[in-house]
Design brief:
Length: about 400
């Protein structure tokens, strides 16, 4: 417990905005007593190949945040298999939470979830996934304290389920076709995302065209380049994908090249989706202002938490740009947080890819997230609506 006035005070910040100062204020409700982390490695059912990285397991930092009223909120930090995507690593996230974010929160009012997130942003820029895990745990504790699911805290359901796109790694055309045909036969998914960028552009475009010619009449196909192409390459080969019937092209250019994305969007009929380019509300405002994407991907991990997702989605919705509920390949824990916020946010109207628990060979909760008719269903228990499986956490713990 620290000294100070009980009322939050408004302070000017570096960028001239105001923020409610909470850390270091005397808590008026239950306070944060401890923040503990466990690093786990969960194997995948099959390897997942991206442009420059192949995953065989997913690593998570599980956060347990205990409050002075005896409630434990849980959260999960992830990156997609390694630091290649956005610079954060799972090992670095653990150190950041253990040494900095956790101690900063000690004694803070656990109920001031939004204000705490803003305050952490002032103290540590970036580190979106580490902050997202803390944010999740604070929301979970709050929901459990009140006995209601997170979607009720976030304004209630806009939808109670979301369609789930399945992602296929950057494998040869035959193996991609085989995997999609199997999924179509099972009826579990009706749209598919094909990872690109691992092969030379001409061969990669030909590979996707082959898949599309075999399957485009049977299903909806989209591609994700994870920023692997430069603008010249994209101008040459994206029209081939468009001609082949691909319905959505995700992040063809590197995150920084928003102007290039705008020039491409202008030349194509097929919409572009921004992913690596949009992490913050400021990114969203810039991308929409420059007409650089027709769809924005939101993710709890890259947006720094649930409020970050809602802020990006609100900016997009104001310009009639739909958001797609993305994944960083979370277990049922992080996936529950995503389902809660995506179901409670009107602007997340362009489906989801919340397939994480379906790609993992094990899970970390007692009752895994529920899928039905190709959709994910938001859990209705208190908080995130999932309970840690302590045996599973111990089994997958790294140390
Ligand atoms: Mn992506």
């Amino acid at each position: 417990m620290t000294t100070g006035t009980a009322a939050a005070r408004l302070e000017p910040t570096a960028n001239g905005a105001t923020a409610v100062s909470t850390i270091g204020e005397r808590a008026t409700g239950p306070s944060v007593e401890s923040v503990k982390t466990t690093l786990v490695d969960v194997p995948l059912l099959r390897p997942h190949k991206f442009s420059v990285h192949q995953m065989t397991h997913q690593s998570m930092v599980i956060v347990r945040l205990r409050t002075s009223d005896g409630i434990e909120g849980i959260g999960e930090a992830v990156v997609p298999g390694g630091p290649w995507w956005g610079g954060e690593s799972i090992e670095g996230i653990k150190v950041l939470i253990d040494r900095y974010l956790g101690p900063m929160l000690h004694g803070a009012d656990a109920g001031r979830v939004t204000a705490l997130a803003r305050d952490l942003d002032r103290r540590i820029p970036g580190a979106q996934s580490a902050k997202a895990a803390i944010d999740m745990a604070l929301w979970d504790a709050r929901g459990k304290a009140l006995g209601i699911p997170l979607y009720e805290l976030l304004g209630g359901l806009c939808r109670d389920r979301i369609a789930v796109t399945w992602a296929v790694g950057a494998e040869p055309a035959e193996s991609v076709i085989r995997e999609i045909e199997g999924k179509l036969a099972s009826g579990a998914h009706s749209s598919f995302k094909l990872k690109m960028g691992a092969a030379e552009p001409q061969a990669d475009a030909a590979r996707i065209a082959r898949v599309a010619h075999a399957l485009a009449d049977a299903t909806s196909l989209r591609v994700d380049l994870n920023g692997s192409w430069d603008e010249t390459t994209a101008r040459r080969w994206l029209p081939v994908l468009e001609e082949a019937g691909i319905e959505l092209i995700e992040q063809p250019l590197p995150a920084w090249n928003v102007a290039g994305m705008a020039r491409l969007a202008d030349r194509l009929r097929v919409p572009l989706m921004a992913d690596e380019s949009v992490r913050t509300p400021q990114d969203a405002a810039r991308i929409i202002g420059e007409h650089a994407a027709g769809v924005l991907a939101v993710k709890v991990a890259k947006c720094g938490g649930l409020v970050g997702v809602q802020q990006v989605a609100a900016i997009a919705e104001a310009s009639a740009v739909p958001c797609h509920g993305g994944t960083t390949i979370e277990s049922s824990l992080g996936t529950a947080a995503s389902a809660q916020v995506f179901c409670a946010t009107p602007g997340v109207s362009a489906g989801s890819e919340l397939f994480g628990p379906l790609l993992l060979a094990g899970d970390l909760v007692t009752e895994p997230i529920h899928y039905e008719d190709g959709c994910i269903v938001a859990p209705s228990g208190p908080g995130l609506g999932v309970t840690l499986d302590e045996d599973a956490v111990a089994r997958y713990a790294r140390d």
